[in-house]
Design goal:
Layout: H1 2-7, H2 12-15, E1 28-29, E2 32-33, H3 40-78, H4 84-87, E3 98-99, E4 103-104, E5 110-113, H5 125-140, E6 162-165, E7 170-174, E8 180-187, E9 190-191, H6 194-201, H7 208-211, E10 214-217, H8 222-238, H9 245-261, H10 264-271, H11 273-276, H12 281-292, E11 296-300, H13 305-316, E12 332-335, E13 349-353, E14 358-359, E15 372-375, H14 378-385, E16 392-396, H15 399-409, E17 412-416, H16 419-428, H17 430-452, H18 460-482, H19 501-509, E18 512-514, E19 528-529
Helix pairs in contact: 3-17, 3-18, 5-8, 5-9, 5-10, 8-9, 17-18
Length: about 550
Amino acid sequence: MASFRRLLPLCPSLTRTSFSPYVHEGFEANGRGYSGIPSSGQTVSKFEEGIKQAEADNLEVSDDIGKIRRDFDAAKRSFLKIPEALKGMPKMNPEGLYANRGIRLDLIQVYGFDYDFTLAHYSANLQSLIYDLAKEHMVNEFRYPEACMSFKYDPYFPIRGLYYDRQNGCLLKLDFFGSIEPEGCFYGRRQLSEKEIEEIYGTRHIGRDQARKLVSLMDFFCFSEACLIADIVQYFIDAKLEFDACYLYEDVNRAIHHVHRSGLVHRGILSDPHRYLVKNGQLLCFLRMLKKKGKKLFLLTNSPYYFVDGGMQFMLEDSLGNKDSWRELFDVVIANANKPEFYTSERSFRCYDTEKDTLAFTKVDRFLENKIYYHGSLKSFLQITKWKGPEVIYFGDHLFSDLRGPSKAGWRTAAIIHELENEIRIQNEDSYRFEQAKFHILQELLGRLHATVSSSKRSDAFKLLMDELNEERQKARCMMKRMFNRSFGATFLTDKGQESAFAYHIHQYADVYTSKPENFLFCSPERWLYAPFDVKIMPHHVKVPSSLFKS
C-alpha cells in the first residue's frame, strides 16, 4: 500500500478522471464519439500496470546502482597495488622531439634562434634576481609600501601559462577549452573555492568579454612576475588597503620591463655568470653539426649585443678554442630586435659597431660576415636574405613574442619548453600513471551512476555512492596535482589529466617542441618529424586507460 501511495503522483491524469453516468459506450455528442473512453475496470487494470512498471523501473535502477557499487568495491581492491600492465607501458623520452605537425628536416636549410632561455640556459637563481630588482623599483620609483622590500620569491608558487585578471585581481590556470581549473584560481596567495569562483565569474568558463580582461604570462620571465603580483595583492588584502587590480598589474609589468630594458638584470647576470648561467658544451656541438651539414644559422634576439656576447663566451668557453668566436657559427646576428613588432613593422636594420657602441647611418641592404645588426623587420630580413619561409625554422621559448609571428609568416617553429623534461619524468612514474588510471575509473563509474536515474529520483543509496566516488576522485586528482606544482599543478595538464590552455597555445604555434635546442643533436638533419596519427592533442602526453585495472 505504501508503494501505491508513493506512485500516485506519477499518474496525475488518472487521479483527475471522472465518469459521467450519462455518457455510455457508443454515445456521440457534437459529432464526436466517446467509444474510446475505457470502462472503470479497464482503467484500474491500466493503473495497476503503471504501478507494476514503475516498481520494475525502480528495481532496475536499484540493480544498476548495486552493480556500480560492486564495481566500485572491486576497483578499490585493485587500487591496492599497481597493475603489472601499467608498469609495462612505454616511457616517453624527456629529451625527445615532439611534433604537432609534420616537418621534413631535409627541406629545412635555415636555423634561427632566440637567445634567452633558448640558446642560453639559466639557473633557478635568475627568477629571484628579477623579482628582487622589480620589487625594489616599485618601492623606490612607484612608492609602494616599504614592507614590500621584505618579500621573497617563492619558486614553488607560479607556473608558466597562467593568466592574470586585470579586473578582479585573480591569477588563473585555464584548461584547453578556456575554463578555470577548480583549484587553479588564486586571489593573492589564497586559493579560491569553486563557490567563490562562481560568485566572481558566474561560471568556470571564461567568455569572450571576460577574456579581454586577461593577460597571459607565457614566457620564462613570467615566474617572477606572477609571484610578485600575488604577493602585492596579498599584502593589500592583509593591510585592508583598497587597490585597483589593473593598476597593480601595470606597475608590476612596468617594473619587470624596466629591469630588462635598463640593463639591470643583464649586468646582474654578467657580474656573476656562474650563479645565473649554465655552461653548455652540447649546444656548440649542435651548432657545429648544422654548419657542417651546410645549414645557414642566424640569431634573432631582443637582448643587447654586449649581454649576448658575454653570455655566449661564458657558456662556450670550455668548448671553443682560444682563437674561435661564437659569432663564426652564425651567418647573421641581430640584437635588440624588438619582437614581436619585428614581424609586423617595417623598421630598417642598423649596423652596430661593437667597439664604439654606436649604430651606423649607412643603409643595410646585405648582411656582412662577422657584423652585428640591430632592429630591423621580418620584411627586410626576407628581402635581404632571399630565404623562403618553409625552409626556415625558428627556435624560441615565448609562444607569442617568438613563435606566433614566424608561424604566421610561414616559417616552421620549434618551442623550447624547459619544464617539459621534469613533467615527462613525472608522467613516466608508475605512481602518477596509477593515480591517473584511478581517476579515469572513478570518472567512468560516476558517469554510469548519473545515467541511471534523474536528479528528482535519487535515493539514499545513490547519494551515498556518489559522495564516495567524488571523494575518491578528488583524492586521485589532488595526488596528481601535488606531484607537480603544489599551487597550480602541471604546466601542460589540468588536475584531471587533460591538456591546459598553455598546451593549447603550444599546439597552435609550435610545429615541434622540446626541452632544449641541442636535443636536435641526436636527430639526423634529414629526418622526418611527424605527429603520431593516434594522438589528439599533445604527442608527449600518454593517457593511461582504466582498462589496465580490469581483469
